[in-house]
Amino acid sequence: MRAYYKNLFENSFSKTIIVILFTTLVCSRIVAQIVYPYPSQQFVFHAENKNSFLSYMDVKPVTGNGKTIILFHGKNFSGYYWKDVIPLLLNRGYRVIVPDQPGWGHSGKPDLHYSFHMLAAINKSLLDSLHINKLIVLGHSMGGMLAIRFSLMYPEFVEKLVLENPIGLEDYKTFVPYQSLETLYKKEKAAIQQAP
Predict the structure, then answer these.
(1) Looking at the DSSP assignment, which residues form a beta bridge with residue 33?
(2) How far is the CA of 84 from the CAs of 87, 97, 151, 175, in angstroms?
(3) Average pLDDT over all residues of the chain
(4) Nearest one of 72, 80, 94, 83 to 161, comparing CA atoms
(5) How are beta strands 95-100 and 68-72 bridged, if at all?
(6) What's residue 165's pLDDT?
(7) What percent of the chain has pLDDT over 90?
(8) Confidence at residue 182, expressed as pLDDT on a 0 to 100 scale
(9) Rounded distance, CA 22 to CA 19, Å?
């Protein structure tokens, strides 16, 4: 038995897997211990035949200006990233929506084919559930890519788009329009059924 464990730890691939698993465990425990500055709520969504949830903060100002802003965090961040920005926006009268994107922070971590289209659609569903039909979109880093995709998909919904250190400004999806896996599956199934 000792020889098995010795061989396991000497194999570089096994070492890499062990480091990844350990890092994931540590990061999960750290995220679980982060105390968000405002209460979080959960929005249940359905994607790729799976149910999951989006954790988000919906913070309303004492005296509102009638405007709402959504804050999209970057990769390796969560809604907690905006903890110092939220009070500044509240003081200026904004209602602030701060989701943890699926797979990050306190949101569910479903096994999905993640795309900016899917994330934009999930966030739009969240906003629809909150009866928000016009807002300012602010995105940081990878959240900037999400903010752009959201604005392209729902231009009538977006009053202003603000980007903080965005990445990936090219819009290759204009050449290959997005289709959900459910839609692609239905098309393939219909094509197979029609085949001779």
Answers:
(1) none
(2) 6, 14, 25, 38
(3) 86
(4) 72
(5) parallel
(6) 86
(7) 63
(8) 86
(9) 5
CATH number of 37-194: 3.40.50.1820
Q: Rounded to the nearest 5 degrees, what angle is found at the Cα of 158, between the Cα atoms of 153 and 164? A: 95
CB 163 within 8 A of CB 147: yes
Amino acid at 46: H
Decide if 47 contacts 110 (C-beta within 8 A).
yes
Whether the CB-CB separation of 121 and 99 falls below 8 Å is answered with no
What distances in angstroms separate CA 88 from CA 27, 61, 95, 115, 127, one per listed residue? 29, 10, 11, 31, 22
For residue 51, which of 62, 64, 42, 63 has the smallest C-alpha distance? 42
Instruction: Answer yes or no: are the C-beta atoms of 106 and 31 closer than 8 Å.
Output: yes
Q: Does residue 122 sit in helix, strand or coil?
A: helix
Instruction: Locate the domains of the chain by residue range.
Output: 1-33, 37-194
Six-digit token string for 165: 């250190």
For tokens 């219909």, name the residue. Answer: 190
Q: What is the pTM (predicted TM-score) of this model?
A: 0.72
41 burial type by CB count under 10 A (0-12 exposed, 13-18 middle, 19+ buried): middle
Residues 151, 157, 161, 163, CA torsion sign: negative
Q: 34-85 pLDDT, tens per residue?
A: 789 999 999 999 999 999 999 999 999 999 999 999 999 998 889 999 999 9
Per-residue pLDDT tens digits for 123-157:
999 999 999 999 999 999 999 999 999 999 999 99
Residue with tokens 């016009």: 134
